[in-house]
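Backbone-to-sequence.
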């Protein structure tokens, strides 16, 4: 068993999590975005949506947003793509994550604490929720094992054009009531920036 073997909403019961829904980011204001970033993103979105595979959406829609976040945050966090995260293989809490963001700025070695897991899907955000929840549970174990426990972890299930946030706090799993769209990229960046720069 691995991340992709879990199903939603069963994953919440499998992992002993209490489900909830809330507006996770009320009152957030969008970050100002550079015109050249927006111009490049428009071209990337057009290409990614026309190819319409998970890989294309990861490369053309999600990665440019994360790279802009990396720039905005002064390269102060770690950004990983397609790496293995091993929480506890005996519980199925292991596998490859599309993107992992860490508080450590190291880029060559995955270091604790992991703060955000981002899972890419090419059809809808619901299909990425189970994998994202399982990866968050693995990240919690990974952080604890490396002496960097964090009380709150965030996840994102995204098609690149739609972004769905979730929060794992102890055993409470809260899904954001709304989705954010790539047309609101300044707001998406604002939320992600707060997550990766929070102490």
């Amino acid at each position: 068993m691995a991340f992709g073997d879990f199903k939603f909403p069963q994953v919440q019961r499998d992992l002993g999590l209490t489900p909830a829904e809330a507006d996770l980011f009320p009152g957030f204001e969008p970050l100002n975005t550079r015109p050249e970033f927006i111009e490049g993103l428009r071209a990337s979105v057009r290409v990614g949506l026309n190819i319409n595979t998970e890989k294309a959406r990861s490369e053309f829609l999600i990665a440019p947003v994360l790279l802009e976040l990396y720039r905005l945050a002064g390269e102060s966090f770690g950004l990983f793509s397609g790496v293995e995260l091993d929480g506890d293989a005996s519980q199925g809490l292991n596998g490859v994550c599309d993107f992992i963001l860490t508080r450590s700025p190291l880029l060559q070695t995955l270091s604790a604490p992991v703060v955000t897991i981002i899972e890419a899907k090419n059809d809808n955000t619901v299909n990425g929720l189970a994998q994202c929840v399982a990866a968050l549970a693995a990240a919690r174990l990974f952080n604890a094992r490396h002496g960097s426990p964090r009380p709150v972890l965030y996840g994102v299930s995204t098609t690149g054009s739609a972004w769905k946030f979730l929060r794992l706090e102890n055993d409470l799993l809260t899904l954001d009531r709304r989705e954010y769209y790539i047309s609101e990229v300044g707001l998406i960046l604002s939320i992600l920036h707060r997550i990766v720069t929070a102490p």
